[in-house]
Amino acid sequence: MTTPIGSTPYARRRKRPRWLTYVLVGLVLAPIIEIAVLIAVGRTIGLGWTLAAWLLLTLLGTWLMRREGSRTWKALREASRTGRMPSREIADGVLILIGGAFLLLPGFVSDVIGLFFVLPFTRGLARRLLEAFVTSRVLVRMPFPGPDGPSNPGAQGTIRGEVID
User: Fold this and answer.
1) β-bridge partners, 146
2) Is there a contact between 90 and 76 (Cβ–Cβ < 8 Å)?
3) What DSSP element (H or E) covers 20?
4) Which residues are CB-contacts of 128 (< 8 A; sequence separation ≥ 6)?
5) How far apart, in whole angstroms, are the C-alpha atoms of residue 140 and residue 110?
6) Smallest Cα–Cα separation from 99: which of 73, 63, 132?
7) pLDDT exceeding 90 applies to what percent of the chain?
8) Among 20, 50, 53, 112, which has the minimal tally of Cβ within 10 Å of its Cβ?
9) Residue 98 in contact with residue 117, Cβ under 8 Å?
């Protein structure tokens, strides 16, 4: 049996993570969806109104992103000044950053997604979704030790010690 150069018969292919497959499919489908929506809107309201709506939505999103970003930055500074944990402000900052990235992409669908992350009254729902996602990833990937010892087989054990002033 002959094998290709640089490989062995026992070499294993690394399995691609599932999330990477979704990202690649999204990168292929996103421009197709954006172009289809742009053509549909253009046929419905005309080319001039479509371009005007596109420009207006982009300008509105940019203004809103700057306004909400500065509000979040002020709230973050205030939380830091008072010694409070700024978890909500950090989540809002991340969501505004993600929304701003979507607002920079050309198209109506990406602008609507970006506005979902930036608008104050929809950001609460986006924040809850982000928290649920992060919680599910952290608890699945990093199990905490239980009272009977470590819950994952690769963990070593508890480090015992004392604090000395």
Assistant:
1) 149
2) yes
3) helix 18-45
4) none
5) 30
6) 63
7) 35
8) 20
9) yes
d(CA 156, CA 72): 41
Taking only the tens place, the pLDDT of each residue in 99-139 is 988 988 888 999 999 999 999 899 989 999 888 888 877 76
Question: Quick one: CA dihedral 73, 75, 78, 84, positive or negative?
Answer: negative
For residue 144, pLDDT over 70 is answered with no
The pTM assigned to this predicted structure is: 0.68
Q: Name residues whose C-beta falls within 8 Å of residue 88's C-beta, 6 or more positions apart in sequence.
A: 75, 127
Tokens 């690649």, located at residue: 24
Q: 44, 23, 33: which is closest to 109 by C-alpha?
A: 33
- Tokens linked to 141: 């990937």
Q: What is the DSSP track for 25-65?
A: HHHHHHHHHHHHHHHHHHHHH-HHHHHHHHHHHHHHHHHHH
- φ/ψ region of 23 (left if φ > 0, alpha if ψ in -120 to 50, else beta) reads alpha
* Sign of the Cα pseudo-torsion (122, 127, 128, 130, in order): positive
Structural contact between residues 80 and 68, judged by C-beta atoms closer than 8 angstroms: no
Q: What is the mean pLDDT of the chain?
A: 82
